[in-house]
C-alpha cells in the first residue's frame, strides 16, 4: 500500500518503459487496455484494494455486514460517543471560541437521545460523567421556552456500549458504572460500524443541524465562505438550537429502523412511550446524588495536615481527627471530587452500618470555592504572571488573580474591556470556565 496510489495508466507507463529498456520487440508490448485486463485476471478486486488502500478499507468496501435487530427493552443497550461539531462558535463578545465537542447517549431500542453534554474540552471522563448524569434523570426545559415538546427520555442504561477511548478505561468510569449498575461494553478499536446507530445520528445531525448554521466548516470553497468570519452563534444559542432539534423534530420524525420493526410512521418518541409503559425505566438509586456518584474518584489516606489530591489540600480538622484516631492513619478512604467545583470533596465513610458521605472543604476556600479544573489552570497561569520570577506563588496572589479574572471577564463580555497582557487568559476563562451540566 502506498499513499500515492497511482492509476493503472501510470503503472502501464512504467511497464512500457521497462519493455523498451529490455530491447524486446514492439509486438511484445501489451496495450493499456490489455494491461488492465491482465491485472483484473491476476488479482481480485479485494486483493487490488488491499494493495492500494489497506486491509481495513478492503474489509469495509468488500465485506458483508448483517444489520442488527433492535433490542426489545428500552435502556437495555445504549451507545455513547463523542463528535467534534463542524461549526465555529463565538464568545458573547463576538470573538472566536472554536468548535465544540458533543457527547451523546443513544438508546438502541427506541433510537431516542437520552442525554448530551456540550463542551469545548476534548473528550474526557468529565464529559462522559456529565452526559451520563444528564441521561439519568428527567430533563427540565424551562430555560428553553421556544421548545414546544417534552424531553421524556431518561434512565440508567443496562449495557453502555463505547469505543476504546481512555475516558472509558479509567477507574472513575468503572466505579461510576458499578455505582449505577451499568455494565460497560468496550467495542474493538477502530470499528465504528459496531455502534452504527450513533454514528448515523451524528451524520444526520451534520446534515439537518450543523450544516445549516452560520459558521459551518464543511464547505468546499473556502474563499467564497469563510467559516470564522461567518460565525454568529455562541454556546448558549448553539445548545438551544441543538436541543430544540432533538426534542421537537428528531424524536417526532419517523425513523426507518423503527418503521421496519413496528410499522410505518413510528417515531422515537412513540417507541419510547410504548416500550417504557410495557417494561418500565431503570432509575438511578438516588437521582438527587447522581452527580456525586459520577464524580472523579480517588483513594486517599488522611494525613496529619489533611487530604491531598494533586496540588489541592482538603481539611476539616474535627472530622478528620475523629476518623484518623478511630481507624488509624493507614486506612485508605474513597473520595469523590466534582471537576466543576474543586472547592470541596466528598469522603465515603463506610465504617458504620449505613455508609454516608462527608463533605470536606478545600483548605484554600476563598480561592477554590466554585472553581473548576480548567479555571484553576487559568488562575495559576495568571498568578505566575503576577509573581516575580523564581518566587513561590502565594495563596493571596491566587485570590487576586481569581478576582481580577472574574472582574475583567465580565467587562470583556460586556464589551467594556481594553486589551492588555491578560487578554488570552480572559478568553480561556470565557471558553473553559463554565463547564456546566449540558
From TrEMBL:
InterPro entries: Integrase_cat-core, RNaseH-like_sf, RNaseH_sf. It comes from the Bacteria. Residues 388-418 form a coiled coil. Gene3D superfamilies: Ribonuclease H-like superfamily/Ribonuclease H. Residues 70-276 form the Integrase catalytic domain. Keywords: Coiled coil. This is Transposase family protein. It comes from Sphingomonas sediminicola.
Amino acid at each position: 500500500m502506498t499513499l500515492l496510489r497511482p492509476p493503472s495508466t501510470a503503472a502501464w507507463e512504467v511497464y512500457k518503459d521497462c519493455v523498451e529498456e529490455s530491447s524486446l520487440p514492439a509486438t511484445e508490448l501489451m496495450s493499456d487496455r490489455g494491461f488492465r485486463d491482465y491485472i483484473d485476471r491476476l488479482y481480485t478486486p479485494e486483493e487490488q484494494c488491499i494493495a492500494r488502500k489497506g486491509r481495513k478499507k478492503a474489509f469495509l468496501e468488500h465485506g458483508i455486514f448483517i444489520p442488527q435487530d433492535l433490542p426489545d427493552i428500552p435502556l437495555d443497550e445504549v451507545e455513547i460517543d463523542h463528535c467534534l461539531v463542524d461549526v465555529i462558535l463565538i464568545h458573547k463578545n463576538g470573538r472566536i471560541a472554536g468548535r465544540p465537542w458533543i457527547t451523546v447517549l443513544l438508546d438502541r431500542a427506541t433510537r431516542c437521545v437520552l442525554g448530551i453534554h456540550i463542551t469545548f474540552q476534548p473528550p474526557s471522563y468529565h464529559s462522559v460523567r456529565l452526559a451520563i448524569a444528564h441521561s439519568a434523570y428527567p430533563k427540565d426545559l424551562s430555560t428553553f421556552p421556544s421548545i414546544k415538546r417534552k424531553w421524556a427520555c431518561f434512565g440508567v442504561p443496562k449495557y453502555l456500549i463505547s469505543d476504546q477511548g481512555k475516558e472509558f478505561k479509567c477507574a472513575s468510569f468503572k466505579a461510576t458504572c458499578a455505582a449505577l449498575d451499568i455494565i460497560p461494553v468496550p467495542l474493538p478499536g477502530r470499528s465504528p460500524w459496531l455502534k452504527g446507530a450513533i454514528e448515523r445520528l451524528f451524520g444526520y445531525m451534520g446534515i439537518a443541524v450543523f450544516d445549516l448554521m452560520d459558521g459551518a466548516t464543511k464547505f468546499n470553497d473556502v474563499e467564497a465562505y469563510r467559516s470564522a468570519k461567518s460565525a454568529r452563534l455562541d454556546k448558549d444559542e448553539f445548545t438551544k438550537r441543538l436541543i430544540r432539534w432533538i426534542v421537537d423534530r428528531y424524536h417526532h420524525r419517523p425513523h426507518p429502523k423503527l418503521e421496519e420493526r413496528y410499522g410505518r410512521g413510528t417515531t422515537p418518541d412513540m417507541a419510547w412511550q410504548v416500550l417504557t409503559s410495557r417494561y418500565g425505566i431503570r432509575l438511578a438509586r438516588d437521582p438527587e446524588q447522581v452527580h456525586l456518584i459520577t464524580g472523579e474518584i480517588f483513594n486517599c489516606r488522611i494525613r496529619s495536615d489533611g487530604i491531598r489530591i494533586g496540588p489541592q489540600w482538603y481539611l476539616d480538622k474535627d472530622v478528620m481527627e475523629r476518623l484518623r484516631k478511630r481507624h488509624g492513619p493507614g486506612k485508605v478512604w474513597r473520595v469523590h471530587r466534582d471537576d466543576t467545583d474543586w472547592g470541596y470533596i466528598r469522603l465515603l465513610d463506610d465504617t458504620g452500618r449505613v455508609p454516608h458521605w462527608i463533605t470536606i472543604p478545600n483548605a484554600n476556600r476563598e480561592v477554590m470555592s466554585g472553581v473548576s479544573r480548567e479555571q484553576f489552570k487559568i488562575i495559576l497561569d495568571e498568578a505566575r504572571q503576577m509573581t516575580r520570577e523564581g518566587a513561590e506563588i502565594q495563596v493571596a496572589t491566587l485570590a487576586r488573580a481569581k478576582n481580577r479574572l472574574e472582574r475583567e471577564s465580565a467587562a470583556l463580555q460586556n464589551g467594556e474591556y481594553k486589551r492588555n497582557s491578560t487578554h488570552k487568559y480572559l478568553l480561556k476563562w470565557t471558553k473553559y470556565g463554565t463547564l456546566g451540566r449540558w
